[in-house]
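queue> pop job 88
queue> type: inverse folding (structure -> sequence)
queue> payload:
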């Protein structure tokens, strides 16, 4: 029997950017891409954590221009595809074309899960540029499986080659993941992917649940470097999938070495489930709110968990980072 294949997309150099305050250097990018490429990782994502053009006062300034980093990644990779994230409203067709010129061959177009309709033009431009396209439905826990499938269907109609269910909050249970994957696989004709965060400790378990339910693409980050409590660890998922009889094409010992010797020295702190990240997972908030809430908490002397709870009560979603300071100031004055 031919083993089933799972395509791993490593997002260390994009989602991991959040965890190091967007301070990747060209040397770090070179070393990470070289190690992942030699280990056999098929897709490596790189951009500001909030996607192309994300470097700003609102989302955090990059240490190095992301297009220089993309060029370095593309120049270094011998086999892996280089991808970037684009969130319509932050990135535009201008940055997408520039990223293509710098060497990406895939773009992952991300929207809030209920707003797939704003991505149509971006898929069109990506197709004109000859890019492989991925639709990225963020905060996917906020819609029922049936309604999420309708949004995914829109992205497929716009030209998405793959559609991802994105657990941006790291809040879903395995049964929630399975239900959404099954809903999408029954409605769509393109592959389904899954992106996890580990805020309640279920990134690996949920990724395996997604694969068992029919997903064939899984996002990871090496050593789990990512927003919140990080993502599904590339090296751990590689081992787990191998034990389950799935093929990833990734050399387990090489990806272990990449995690321990290349990525972990870059990390400013280990990816653990601390009380703030757990609050995000428990309340279902966007994982990238974590660092913003910590900084706002320090500035206004407010427990970051109180800020996160209030944001959850107000149903804040991605793109409303500027709200965090307002909420912290209000809580400080109560």
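queue> result:
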């Amino acid at each position: 029997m031919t083993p089933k294949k799972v395509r791993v997309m490593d997002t260390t150099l994009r989602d991991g950017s959040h965890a190091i305050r967007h301070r990747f250097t060209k040397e770090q990018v070179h070393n990470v891409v070289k190690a992942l490429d030699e280990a056999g990782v098929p897709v490596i994502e790189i951009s500001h954590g909030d996607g192309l053009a994300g470097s700003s006062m609102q989302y955090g300034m990059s240490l190095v221009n992301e297009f220089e980093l993309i060029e370095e990644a593309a120049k270094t990779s011998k086999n892996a595809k280089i991808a970037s994230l684009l969130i319509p409203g932050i990135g535009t067709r201008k940055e997408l074309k520039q990223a293509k010129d710098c060497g990406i061959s895939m773009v992952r177009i991300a929207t809030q899960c209920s707003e797939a309709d704003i991505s149509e033009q971006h898929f069109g431009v990506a197709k004109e540029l000859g890019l492989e396209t991925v639709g990225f439905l963020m905060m996917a826990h906020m819609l029922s499986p049936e309604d999420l499938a309708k949004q995914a269907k829109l992205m497929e109609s716009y030209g998405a080659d793959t559609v991802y269910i994105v657990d941006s909050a790291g809040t879903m249970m395995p049964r929630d993941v399975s239900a959404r994957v099954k809903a999408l696989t029954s409605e769509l004709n393109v592959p389904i992917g899954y992106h996890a965060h580990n805020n309640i400790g279920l990134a690996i378990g949920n990724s395996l649940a997604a694969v068992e339910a029919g997903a064939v693409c899984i996002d990871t980050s090496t050593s789990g470097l990512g927003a919140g409590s990080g993502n599904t660890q590339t090296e751990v998922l590689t081992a787990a999938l191998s034990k389950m009889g799935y093929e990833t094409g990734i050399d387990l010992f090489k990806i272990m070495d990449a995690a321990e010797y290349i990525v972990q020295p870059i990390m400013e702190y280990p990816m653990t489930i601390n009380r703030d990240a757990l609050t995000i997972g428990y309340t279902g908030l966007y994982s990238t709110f974590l660092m913003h809430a910590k900084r706002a908490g320090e500035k206004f002397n407010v427990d970051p968990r109180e800020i996160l709870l209030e944001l959850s009560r107000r149903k804040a979603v991605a793109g409303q980072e500027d709200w965090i300071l307002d909420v912290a100031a209000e809580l400080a004055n109560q």
